[in-house]
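Lecture 7 notes: from sequence to structure.

We start with a single chain of 173 residues. Read the sequence below before looking at the structure.
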Amino acid sequence: MILYIARHGESLGNTGEDTGHDPKLSVKGKKQAELLGERMKNLRLDAVFSSPLTRAVQTAESTAFFQNMQVEIIPTAYEVENETTEEAYIRAKNVIDTVMSRFKNDERIIVFAHGTFNNYLINAAIGFPVRDDFNFCQENTGLTCIKFMPDGKTKIEFANDYCHLSPLGEIEY
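Now the structure, written as tokens:
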């Protein structure tokens, strides 16, 4: 199985325009989501999952559109808030276990969530404990690819890849 983990596009919360609990995507964030959707359109995906928060759902909708699929909400994939590291990690592990119990073969799945929670998701997926002195960076629409091999090994193919944003001038070569 191949698991993609993506962070939502730039939100009005990221820009400081909306400091509420559930901000929408900014204009730039909508373009980032579109570019990620276009990047993923030629891959066969078997499911598009999202956090229930608006910014993640809006980002996931672009990829789902190009896949001619619906976004499936994972209610527990929300951002880390007022919980211990252990509680957040357990929640992330439960999300990974839920996805893994449903898909076991050569499927390709994508989960859209949030920067801090994605760190927990990646750690849970590869079986690493979360450490205070290390995290997996997740830029807006940064994409991480984790492969679960038939021999039981897990490989990170790439992490926080956002090459799809080059049309926005966000990548310098």
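The domain at 2-168 is CATH 3.40.50.1240 (Rossmann fold). Keep this in mind for problem set 3.
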